[in-house]
Amino acid sequence: MRQRRLGASEGGVGSSGGNMLRFYTDDAPGIKISPTVVLVLSLCFIGFVTALHVFGKLYRSKLVPPGAQ
Fold first, then answer.
1. Which terminus of the chain has a lower count of CB atoms within 10 Å, N or C?
2. pTM of the full structure
3. 48 in Cβ contact with 42 (< 8 Å)
4. Secondary structure class of 2 (helix, strand, coil)
5. Contact at 8 Å (CB) between 27 and 21?
6. In sequence order, what DSSP letters do the residues of 9-48 get, joined into one string?
7. What sections of the protein cross the membrane (predicted)?
């Protein structure tokens, strides 16, 4: 019985694994930041958007007189 060789389209280990590991090496292009910094910045962005939403609701409630809607 003959052995079947894995081609590039069949998802072999070497087909895309090498490309994905390249993102995590020192020679990858782009800004080098740790995952902790990404997490903190994401949480700050979520907090900022939430604060804008709350301030917008409060500001809008002060502009419209009660019973006008």
1. N
2. 0.53
3. no
4. coil
5. no
6. GGT-HHHHHHHHHGGGSTT-SS----HHHHHHHHHHHHHH
7. 33-55
